[in-house]
Structures are given as structure tokens and as C-alpha cells.
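yo, Transcription antitermination protein NusB is done. seq:
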Amino acid sequence: MQRKMAREIAMQIIFQMEIQKDFSIEKLNELIGVNIPEKDKQEKYVNNIVSNLIEHKENVDEVIKLNLKSWKFDRIAKVDLSILRTAIVEILYDENIPNLVAVNEAVEMGKKFSTEESGSFINGILGNVLKSDR
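structure:
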């Protein structure tokens, strides 16, 4: 499995956790078993992204809220929210991933899993995050 696929699986696990309202390590372990049936070297990467979200969810969501322009947090589509959370975890908590890679991959996931407009929406929020991070 490539890093891109691992990132997509991490986003899908975050989405499932959001739908089930269960951001626990137990749920993560269950969903990794379902989404990555065979041991894979990228499993650690998926685990890292989702574990960081579980640990820092309040901060990640606050970063999203602070960077929304004329939009309410609870109106964000669950898929878009999952993509944003994935990217922000990479930006804030993974020094091995360049910020622009995290943004570009998030935009592509938005186009693939949500709508064409989601790519622009995600890009705008993450652009604000990068500007405010400086």
C-alpha cells in the first residue's frame, strides 16, 4: 500500500468514527482490522494519523473552527470534516510530511470522495491554517 492509499484509509476510519461518534483506541483497532485486513507497512502510518486525532481532536477541531470564513462547523459535510482532520493532523503533528503535500492530498481526496467544490473549500481552510501557523 502506498502512502496516498494509507492517507485515504485513515480519512475513511476518521469518517467512520465520526458517524459512530466513537473516537476511541478500541474503535481505531477494530476499524484498522476491517480496513487493512493484511499486515502492511503503512498500517503504522494510518494508526499514527488516527491516534493523533484521537489525542488532539479538540485542538484539531478548534483549528478548523478558527479558520472557517462565514461557515459553521456543524454544517461541514462529514466527509470534508474527515479530510480536514486528516490533513490538519499531518500539518500539526507529522514533521515528515511537508505541509503542501498534506494540503494537496486533502484537496485531491475532497474531489475524489466528496464534490469538486469540496476541493476548493478544503484548500481555502487549509490555506488559512498554513497562513495562521506562521
